[in-house]
């Protein structure tokens, strides 16, 4: 992995050294040794370099880099990158997240155009667009999301679009701006069980996030909704099953469950590594509760294999409708 991290380090060279000033005074947490099933290879090659070149020349940010995703080597080699709009600095400081915290720069009005251009240049069939939280903006960035969706539709009309949004907490009904832009998949992650929100996701509210996803279904029933959680933070099986039930009550179509991986000693500690067998059990339970699509594995992330998963999601709905 050394070559991979050195490559990505060059992309961050001009950025401040302290990514998480709010975490510096926290005591170090223990780092558990990763089991064999967590280890990943870092494939490199022409397609990886091409993806990186497009991101660099387009002055675009990816969550693959900023969040330290373990799947970046595989995804970039396959010409898949999750673009992160509205900058690389988040206004919140979640205990699990490796994205930089601080005061963001003003929005870049040209960013939606460049994102659309990058999607076209990469020839993507399915694209995932996420963002930092922008509590400093009156609409939380909703209009910027909508403009990005429109730009992709214009420059890459055959691409399907999946968005992973903030919660737009205390911003009124601005989420409707994004919903009405009609992405193919509206994703917002609940991240963890309600009991752990205060320590893991203190700037967010579990039931507000759940309500946001329900709002999507109420306004546009045909829009696919998606949400995910991390495990290994100290949650119980019963709590995970309750989250599944809450999601189904909100009409969520697609559930992702992945292992929490600790970015640094200043982040939340891993309680344990959930085994592949346990992930299989979670997948079985989730499917029995009526989700159209479930991805549950140690390395599952919101946008991992998103294109292939979207195809299966659409097929599952078609089969369900055919039975009615």
UniProtKB/TrEMBL annotation:
Question: Main localisation, per the record?
Answer: cytoplasm
Q: In which pathway does it act?
A: Protein modification; protein lipoylation via endogenous pathway; protein N(6)-(lipoyl)lysine from octanoyl-[acyl-carrier-protein]: step 2/2
GO MF annotation terms: 4 iron, 4 sulfur cluster binding; lipoate synthase activity; metal ion binding
Domain Radical SAM core as annotated: residue spans: 76-292
Disordered: where is this region? 1-31
Q: Which reaction does it catalyse?
A: [[Fe-S] cluster scaffold protein carrying a second [4Fe-4S](2+) cluster] + N(6)-octanoyl-L-lysyl-[protein] + 2 oxidized [2Fe-2S]-[ferredoxin] + 2 S-adenosyl-L-methionine + 4 H(+) = [[Fe-S] cluster scaffold protein] + N(6)-[(R)-dihydrolipoyl]-L-lysyl-[protein] + 4 Fe(3+) + 2 hydrogen sulfide + 2 5'-deoxyadenosine + 2 L-methionine + 2 reduced [2Fe-2S]-[ferredoxin]
- UniProt EC number: 2.8.1.8
User: What subcellular locations does the record give?
Assistant: Cytoplasm
Alphabetically ordered keywords of this record:
4Fe-4S, Cytoplasm, Iron, Iron-sulfur, Metal-binding, S-adenosyl-L-methionine, Transferase
Recorded hits in SUPFAM superfamilies, A to Z, give:
Radical SAM enzymes
For activity, the cofactor(s) needed are: [4Fe-4S] cluster
- Per UniProt, [4Fe-4S] cluster 1 binds at 64, 69, 75, 303
* Binding sites annotated in the UniProt record for [4Fe-4S] cluster 2: 90, 94, 97
* Taxonomic superkingdom: Bacteria
Query: What family classification does the UniProt entry report for this protein?
Result: Belongs to the radical SAM superfamily. Lipoyl synthase family.
Which NCBIfam families does this entry report, sorted A to Z?
A: lipA, PRK05481.1, PRK12928.1
Question: Which protein, by its recorded name, is this?
Answer: Lipoyl synthase
């Amino acid at each position: 992995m050394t070559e991979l991290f050195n490559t990505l380090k060059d992309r961050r060279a001009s950025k401040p050294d302290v990514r998480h000033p709010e975490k510096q005074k926290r005591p170090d947490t223990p780092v558990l040794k990763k089991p064999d099933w967590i280890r990943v290879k870092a494939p490199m090659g022409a397609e990886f370099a091409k993806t990186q070149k497009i991101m660099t020349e387009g002055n675009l940010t990816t969550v693959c880099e900023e969040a330290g995703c373990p799947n970046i080597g595989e995804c970039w080699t396959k010409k898949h990158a999750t673009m992160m709009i509205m900058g690389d600095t988040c206004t919140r400081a979640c205990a699990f997240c490796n994205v930089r915290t601080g005061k963001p720069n003003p929005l870049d009005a040209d960013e939606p155009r460049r994102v659309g251009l990058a999607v076209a240049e990469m020839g993507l069939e399915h694209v995932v667009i996420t963002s930092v939280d922008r509590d400093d903006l009156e609409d939380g960035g909703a209009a910027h999301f909508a403009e990005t969706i429109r730009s992709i539709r214009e420059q890459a009309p055959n691409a399907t679009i999946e968005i992973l949004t903030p919660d737009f907490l205390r911003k009124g009904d601005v989420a409707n701006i994004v919903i009405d832009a009609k992405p193919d998949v509206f994703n917002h992650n609940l991240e963890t069980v309600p009991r752990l929100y205060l320590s893991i996701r203190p700037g967010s509210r579990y039931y507000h996030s759940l309500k946001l996803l329900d709002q999507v279904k109420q306004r546009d029933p045909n829009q696919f909704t998606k949400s995910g959680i991390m495990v290994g933070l100290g949650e119980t099986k019963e709590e995970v099953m309750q989250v599944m039930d809450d999601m189904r009550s909100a009409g969520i179509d697609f559930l992702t469950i992945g292992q929490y991986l600790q970015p640094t000693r200043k982040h939340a500690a891993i309680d344990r590594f959930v085994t592949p067998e346990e992930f299989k059990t979670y997948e079985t339970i989730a499917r029995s509760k009526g989700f159209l699509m479930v991805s549950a594995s140690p390395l599952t992330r919101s946008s991992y294999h998103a294109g292939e998963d979207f195809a299966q999601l659409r097929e599952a709905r078609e089969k369900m409708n055919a039975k009615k």
